Amino acid sequence: MAPPQMVLSDLRDAWSSALAGRLLGLYLHGSLVAGDFATARSDLDLLAVLDDDPDENLLDLLAGLHADLDRRHPQWAGRIEVEYVSLAAVRQAANGGTGRDRVIARVSPGELLHLLPATTHRVVTWSAVRDHGRSLLGPQADALLPAVDPELVRSALLDHVRDWPTWVTDMTNPGAQSYAVLTLCRAFQRLQYGRQLSKRQAADETVTAHPQWAHLIIWARDWWYDGGRDTDHGNADDVRAFVNELSVGILASERATRATTAR
Q: What H or E segment, with its residue span, contains residue 111?
């Protein structure tokens, strides 16, 4: 398997040529930056900042670029996650705009390249890239991307937490289930303690906070990082119960904190 640095180098060279004049910055984020990258499991997470919103014509070009990258690095096919967003859309969201009049393009594991609204849900990722992203092309992330009000980021993350009990009902394989558990652990750590942790770190910390779910969190962590297979037996009922309980707890804590602050 080609090392991730080789894949990123190929991607950077191809994108800088094909998107010349349109690409303002290309940023790596996620586990490879956080130092918690598992070669056999982790995805490569990137944010491409454009001079204008993507459209169907650009989507055709990007689809060809991704297909070519998959041919050159077949073992990484389906493990490269890229979000394409205009700088104007990020600025609009950072200023509190809904972004529904703008679109982004996105490709991720299990999700084909497509267009979707640039809603404020995305500021969780954009703010994380600004704070922690590594530049592959263009200026440093904090020099290009606007700062986002922490309360706006918190509100967007809470929206994610509200949606997880619905999302998890469709997660039937152990990969999706472990992802749900680990992602809720990360949200819990960030909202409760202000810590931006990797999946592994968040799992380990949440075991202490929720020992009643230790067996499930450890299962999710070990499946994710120790080469679990999608043919393995999942834990659908426990995962749904965990997601519901943690989501309810996070939202109740948030309401209590706001009520106390308002007094």
A: strand 111-117
